[in-house]
Amino acid sequence: TFSPCERSPHLTINHEVAADLDSTNAFEGPEKLLEVWFAPSPRLLPPSVKEGGLKAVSPSTWEGMLDLVKCKILSIVRSEHVDAYLLSE
Amino acid sequence: SSMFVFPHKLILKTCGTTTLLLGLRRLLRIAAVDAGFPFHNATSLDDVRVAATPYRVFYSRKNFLFPHRQRGPHSSWKDEVKFLDDTFENGSAYMVGRMNADHWYLYMTSPVGNTLTPPLTPSSSNGGSPTRSSKIPTGIITFPGAPEEQADETLEILMMDLDPELAKQFYLEQASAVADERVPAQAREARRAAHDSLGDIDGQAFVTDADHVDVFANSKDLDGAAPNAEQADIEARTTEGHALGTVVSDMCGLSQVYPKSAYPDSRIDAYLFTPCGFSANGVVPAPVPGPDGKCDKLDHYWTVHVTPEPVCSYASFETNVPGGQNGRATSEVINHVVSIFKPGRFTMTLFQAKKPADDDSLLVAPIKHMDTIKGYRRMDRIVHDFDDYYLIFRYYERE
Prior knowledge:
The complex is a heterodimer. Chain A has a three-stranded antiparallel beta sheet. Chain A has helices at about 5, 15-20, 60-70; strands at about 10-15, 30-35, 75-80, 85. Chain A has three helices and four strands, in the order αβαβαββ. By secondary structure, chain A is an alpha+beta fold. Residues about 1-5 of chain A have low confidence and may be disordered. Chain A is globular, with a radius of gyration of 16 Å. Chain B is an alpha+beta fold. Helix content of chain B is about 20%, strand content about 25%. Chain B has helices at about 25-35, 75-85, 165, 170-180, 185-200, 240-250, 330-340, 360-370, and strands spanning about 1-5, 10-15, 55-60, 90-95, 105-110, 155-160, 205-210, 215, 265-270, 280-285, 300-305, 315-320, 345-355, 375-385, 390-399. In chain B, the strands form four sheets. Chain B has an eight-stranded antiparallel beta sheet. In chain B, helix 4 packs across helix 6. The longest helix of chain B has 16 residues, at about 185-200. The radius of gyration of chain B is 23 Å and the shape is globular. Mean pLDDT of chain B is about 80; it is low at about 195-220 and about 230-235. Chains A and B meet through strand 1, helix 2, strand 2, helix 3 and strand 3 of A and strand 1, strand 2, helix 1, strand 3 and strand 6 of B. Strand 4 of chain A pairs antiparallel with strand 1 (about 1-5) of chain B, so a sheet runs across the interface.
C-alpha cells in the first residue's frame, strides 16, 4: 500500500511560458482530439518497452512534438498512472 | 489544449488553429525510440522513418466554426482523412450527426480482427521485416489477455452558444474582480511581490504550488531537476493565470463536478488566459489499493476548455472517470456540466468499450438516463455499434 500523500497528484508550473501568455488572437473553440494506444492496458506493455512506457518519456522530449503542434506546456499534474499536461492555445 | 500521457496510450486535445496531426509522426517516433514500443516500418531505430506500431488510433473533432482559418491538413475533414490514410493502414472515417448543423467526425483504426495483416506478438516485433508500404500498420500486434482488462469509457460534451452572463466568468477582468473580493489584500500583495521576484531570478522557470515544493533551475530542467531549497519560500505562489484559473474553477462549479468529498485525492490544474479563455485538467486517482497492495484501476482524467467570446462561444468537457459505481452517474455529470455553461445547444458523445461477454443490456441503461437533460430538448440520438466499442451520440437544444 502507499500513503495518501504519495497518491496525491503533483503539480508543476512552467512559469516561463505561463507568465506572459497572450491569447488575444485565439478564436476557434472546437478542438482536435487524438488518442493513440500502443497496448490495451499498462499491464500489457510489450517486453521491449521501458519501465513506465510513454509516461517515462521526458517532458522536454514531448516539447519537440508539441512545437510541431504549436502548443507550449503550461503545467503538469503527475500521478501514479497519468501525467496531465495543460497546454497553451 | 491538454495532453494526457499514460504508460500505454497518449491523448492530445488541442484548440484553435493548432496543427495537431503534424505532430503525429514525431509522436510515433518518440514511442519507438524513447519508450521502446515495437515498430514494423523500419529495420532499426537509426532509420529516420521509424514509428511505433499503434494498437489503435482515434481522431475526432466537431465541425469547425472557421474552417478556412485552419492550417496544414486541418482545413477540411477530407484533408485530415487523407493525411491519416496516408499515415496508417486500415483506418475508417465517419461523420455523425446533421450535415447542415452541428456534427462530429471520427477516424479510427481497430486491433486485429479488422485488419488483413497477420497478427504478431509483442516479442516477435521490433524491427524485422519492414512493411513494403510507407504507411504504418496498426493493430497487428496481439496481446494475451486483451481486450482491455477494465472498462474504457470516455464522455465528451461539446457546448455552443454559451449563456452570455455565465461566459463572463471566463474573462480575466471579471475573474480578477472576483479574486480581489475573495483574496485578502495582504495575501494578494504577497503573491504579486513573489510573482515579480520570480521574474527577476535568472533562469528560474518552473514553480510548483504550495502542496508540493519544487523549483527548477531553468527550462531545460522540465524533466525534474533537484529542487533549490533557497527558493522554497516563494514557490508557493503561482502565476496569475493559474491562480485565477483556480478561482474560476471554484466559482463556476467545475471543482464540484468531481468533488473532494467523493474523490479526496483528486487534483485540478486550471488556467485563465489573457484576455479570456479557460482550460483545466483534473486527475482523479484510482481507488486505494486492497490489502494485497494491488489496484486494478487506473487514475482517470477530466478536462475543460472554454472560449467565451459571444461570436464564437464554446466549451468542451471530457472525462474518462467511470460513471456510476461509488462515484457520480454519467447523467449527473452531464447535468452538472451543462448547468455551468447553459449552452444554447450541445452534443454529447460517449465511447463505451464492450466487454468480452457483453450483452446489450449494458448499453441500454446509460442511454435512457442520458436522454433527459433538464431544460433541453433532445434532437438527435445515434448509436454506432463498432466491433469493440459503442459510440452514443446525442444532440440537444435549449427549450
